[in-house]
Amino acid sequence: MFMGTQYNFNWGSIYEYKQKFIDGFLTTIYISFFSLILSFFIGLFFAYGQNSKLILLRFFSRFYIETIRGTPLLVQILIFFYVIAANLGLDNRYIAGVLILSLFSGAYISEIIRAAIHSIPQEQYETGLSLGFTIFQTYRYIIFPQAYKRIIPPLTGQFASIIKDSSLLSIISVNEFTMNAQEVNSYTFSTLESYIPLAIGYLLLTYPISLWSRKLEKKMKD
Amino acid sequence: MLLKSFMSFVLLFALNPVFANAKPLRVGMELQYPPFEMSTKDGTPSGISVDLAKALGKYLGRKVIIENIAWDGLIPSLKTKKIDIIISSMTITNERKKVIDFSIPYAQANLSILTNPTSGVKSVKDLNQKGRVIAVKKGTTGNIYAMEHLKKAKLLILDKESSAVLEVIQKRADAFIYDQLTVYRDWEHHKKTTVALLKPITKKPGYWGIALRQNEPKLKKKINAFIKKAKSDGTFDKLAYKYLKNIKKTFIRLNIPFFF
Fold first, then answer.
1. Cys-Cys crosslink for B124: which of A214, B201, B227, B252, Cβ 3.0 to 4.6 Å?
2. Beta carbons within 10 angstroms of residue B201's beta carbon
């Protein structure tokens, strides 16, 4: 595959910068981890918001989800960091990075949760009520246990996406994995030597998640 | 009749010195540094480097193709033979010399500082301190300088010049290190929010060269001869007059050494 690139590999120049790769890899893990947790709660809130009786909250939730899903993440990062965060006085680009990633991913997670809850047939709600369950009990004991199985597989996929999407934070100079690899590339001019470890690094993070997701799916079937 | 016109068509190409050499010269540059490398409103490349590339093409008898490539992709593109030479206001540095070759210098530029009114930065000495944040454009001489000489400060490495300026305006960075022309022009656009410290921060200026692959002595010889000729026959003066008339006046007024 690499024969056609007419390229002389020079791994030695990259090895000098190994600490940069390690630091970037760890930063990517931190950012993804916090975004993962925060985006789940954001998703949960807006999934509730979309079904809310309050019309304002419902509209706001729809507006949020459509805006986020209809615009590129790159544009969102630039606007959030240079316009919104600047006005709020939020100067820490790592916190800003986690926030924007969570807001982005939260919109998708909210759709995953909403779709799962909607997929439970209407009769089940009616059955719950006819058995004398309160609405809370219906959700707690009938709807959620079933919806849960439909949420988990796409949710793990979304988590893998967060890890990959975090690479876009490099444009606001967050020293994550991609940023550091690009930096090494710009010092050593060894493009492929910088980007191949990068691809392997991301695979190391996403592949276990993919495995875990498959395992869960199997478990859910039983 | 048909044959005749075909023959004359072939002859036209065979006799035209520009088309005699079949292989066009692919010149890489990042069209983001006016007036050296830029594009007109309809997207045609223009600027001093473009005119220089065309003059070089004429000198070598080769057709010129301009390839617009992002700055940190220029050297990899040259290495992987996607382009033949780089004319992109590139400074000759030791780091770059390790992987590519350069012609003799054709212009010079100095690094300077763009800062904001509240940072309190007066010279480059104020920058090499803990807590200072310095914005640079990735892979530029400003980036290399800051990495080597301003080790105590925190580096913000950005893809675009415009992002770096924005970081300074928003006070997230104390300074942006780049060449004098850029710093001066950025200050012109943001006179209230930025301060330009145009005094060169290094003793020696950076010299710009045309970059080519290593071990191509024939091409290097020809390019060097072309640069010498262009310097003596007024090609550079003409280009400077065409694109840099006002800037040259400003540079003379501010006592900054001019490019050519």
1. B201
2. 21
pLDDT of B21 above 70: no
In chain A, the percentage of residues whose pLDDT exceeds 90 is 64
Q: Which of A7, A170, A173 sits opposite B80 (nearest CB)?
A: A7
A9 touches chain B (CB under 8 A): no
- Torsion region of B129: left, alpha or beta (phi above 0 gives left; psi -120 to 50 gives alpha): beta
Peptide bond into B35 cis (omega under 30): yes
Distance between CA atoms of residues B190 and B168, nearest Å:
11
Supply B201's token pair: 């921060």
* CA proximity to B71, closest of B16, B136, B156: B136
For chain B, list the domains and their CATH numbers.
2-108+205-253 (3.40.190.10), 111-197 (3.40.190.10)
Instruction: Record the pTM.
Output: 0.80
DSSP 8-state secondary structure symbol assigned to residue B73: G
Q: CB–CB of A179 and B157 under 8 A?
A: yes
- Residue A23, class by beta-carbon neighbours within 10 Å (0-12 exposed, 13-18 middle, 19+ buried)? middle
In this predicted model, what pLDDT tens digit does every residue of A45-60 receive, in sequence order?
999 999 888 999 999 9
Interchain CB distance below 8 Å, B157 and A7 = no
Exposure string of B142-157, with b = 16+ CB inside 10 Å and e = fewer, is bbbbbeeebeebebbb
pLDDT score at A59: 95
Q: What is the mean pLDDT of each run of 10 residues along chain A (222 residues)?
A: 63 87 95 95 94 93 96 95 91 94 96 93 91 90 88 90 94 93 86 90 94 83 66
Question: Greater confidence, B256 or B200?
Answer: B200
Choosing among B170, B176, B213, B215, which should be mutated to test the A contact, i.e. which has the most A CBs within 10 A?
Answer: B170
